[in-house]
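Field reference: sequence -> structure
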Amino acid sequence: MSEHSAFWDSESTLYILDMYERYLADASSVPQSWQAFFAEMGASASKEMRALQQELALAKPQPRGGLPNPLASGGASTKISGAEKSTTKPRANNEKGLSTLELWATNIIDNYRRYGHFAAALDPLGLNEPAGHAALQEWRKSLNEDDLQQPLKKIKLGRQNTIAGIVDQLERMYCGSIGYEYMHVDDPAEVAWWERRIEQAPFSLAPDRVEIVLQHLIKAEQFEAFLAKKFPAAKRFGLEGCEALIPVMFNLLARAARDEAEHAVIGMAHRGRLNVLCNVLGFPFEALFQQFKGEYNPHTANGDVKYHLGFENRLDLKGHALRAHLMHNPSHLEAVYPVMAGYLYKLQQQSPKALGVCVHGDASVIGQGVVAETQQLSQLEGYATQGIVHLVLNNQVGFTASAQEGRTAHYCTDVAKAIGAPVLHVNARDISKVMEATWLAYEYRKVFGKDVYIDLVGYRKNGHNESDEPAFTQPNMYSAIKKMPSIVDTFVRQQVEKGNTTGEMANKLSAEYGALLQERFEHKHTDDGLHDKVPAIAAPDKTGWALDGIKELFPKLVKTPAGFALHKRLAKLFEQRLSRFEEEGVVDWAGAEQLAYATLLVEGTAVRLSGQDVVRGTFSHRHVGVVDQKTGERYFPLNDVAPTQAKLSAYNSILSEFGVLGFEYGVSLPKPQQLVIWEAQFGDFANGAQTIVDQFIVSAEVKWGQTSNVVLQLPHGYEGQGPEHSSARLERFLELCAQDNMRVVNLTLPANLFHLLRHQARCETKKPLIIMSPKSLLRHGLVYSPVHDFSDETGFRALRVPDEQQLKRAEKLIFCSGKMYIDLLQEQQNRGDDRVALVAVEQLYPLPLAEMEAVMAAAGNADVCWCQEEPQNMGAWRYMREQLTAYDLRYIGRELAASTATGYPQAHKQEVADIFTQVFKNKKVLK
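Structure field:
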């Protein structure tokens, strides 16, 4: 190796090689110091770089848990006093650039920026010494004391111009109670911003802010102590160990209000929720105490446990108004993240400065994949939320599992690196540093509009919940926790020493808050905070449109601008669609869907459509957006149907169900009402979003009074495509139907789709709509609706019923739905068999029971059957049998099965033939 290798070792190898590659590609892309260095090396540079690749290995960070520091006493300290002497002499200054010592200084500064967080003192319990990093030590092997004290001409950090002074400065900046991770951020402007804030404009907690922070710490601590005293056996998921959350939350909201934000949306799991509700958001103490006492109104809906509940309130923060929205959240901790992100996105359409804050747990933020899914939406068109401030309440333990058991990553926040989000790791007991992290995170989000994480490293005092015994699995941790002094006492002592407050002030604030809690405890709250009984599902009414208006609108759905190079096959599809409308007077499925959107847009109701490949449609049927084959530009005909209209927003989502459906559900919650649709690529893909379905879509109204009109379009139908492309699991949705919570349909009429979508957008009673969408029926010859069926003289039909004469002469009355009805109808036409009366049940919940009973009465003694394409233990069979217990309903369909469908086309055909045989054979069907 040449003399140039004296200033580096194995840790810096990849960094140097990366710099050299960038230098070769574009010399201006690297700092001037590196340009000069490589220029001086000249022709030998390439040879030395190759030698580096062969002979040196990258030194990696030490494992989590902290290995003994090579610098010995005092853990991970990297103080210069422990440096060994070196015989390496500093190189002479180079006329073209920096001296070797100055290059050393540059390398040291860069390493502290990159790896200083590994040496930060983050654990308030002192159990886990900082891991340190070899890159922070490399200079000790080559530099002696003279080198450290020699003044540098061209490198300076603050007022320090020696390596000794620079390292001492870096230790204070990067290895204290905050660990900064920002060097993984791609944008050089953002990196420079962090460097300036940390190194040139250090934060300090102003004396006039100390009292405010102290007041919130007192509230946080005393609130938990009061609940523990009054309700010692109750679960509350207390905040003890991370009390700093309360001043952090207040500071974020106050700064947002000062910046004229009208809204703040907060998502958080259980820990600390009750504290935030009362001490930050103004939830009435007496209402909470009433819930702890077990008092409730039996005439309201089901309700939920206290630490799941959300709240909305208008706050007055030092003369600035802000409406804060704390989202409801179930026990699936991170499920609220996409919901609050969607809610925030919708609010930002009217209030661009709205702030988003998401509070996570350390085990769940990295352990539940929806965080990774939802993060990927953060900068995408149609989903970007101008940056969310993420707060991780880092207890350093999951339910019972330690961090070493809970993740492979070094930090629980390493998931943030996937989107280049900066992370501030901060010791939750160092309140001044916590407030610095809060200030930095808010400013970063404000300036760059991107997500940022605060990893608030604390502990939890009482285990997973107040009835748990954490010492079973974490004896050392909980032995240390028992010895921890009051966070208020610690902060007061520190600030008294600085002259920023007095013990008398702390005692006064504490006494006032304690008296308030006791007063509210004794006060009777008149409103239990729950909601009224869930309203019934409204029947679709007045959903048609004037026929003249429909005839005027429809051609615009397939029209493109002059000169637009439409794909030939797509041009033919549009021509056929228009021809059927104008010449045959019928509308297909895609035409009916877009006609519903168009009429709503003209009326001023916005439409949002999201999902994997929804713009074109999985089955190449929708094409709400078309692409110019020459320019690649996209055009949406629906956004060009009227001079003044609302907007259609259609977005091809990332390959996600859980995160994206949660986001769309969140978008559907705030007013003004719009039509929000999520479409699965195939219906069974909704399996991946079952948490959102179960915990929000079907139950939020009865748990929390939270209503949504979100639409799920789930392609469904047995066509021999195998187990994963057949069933949208209709049976699961029907199992979840109760208390008028949603509408579930399996349609065969395009006009029915038109009427339902219009009803969904216009109805004041918001209910989710689940549509078993067709696949092969999208172009089926029997799946068209006459244009007249869209007019204002018509509406939704819950049943498709044959004429009265056919009902009277029928030997069998077959109820069915969806594709099964169309298959049977076509087979009946092929056979010319009029002894079977087919009835399509278009709406399965609420079931049109009175109409079905009228049909059965008209059919007289006909054998009544339910026929379905799904296996007997799936689909609607068991649901229908329970709904029609008074009738001798018989089953026709596939046998019981563990898998949803066969993967063999020939087996599928045989199964369909067997169903046809059972339906159309002469003798009555056996049980």
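Note: Residues 1-12, 55-96 have pLDDT under 50 and may be disordered.
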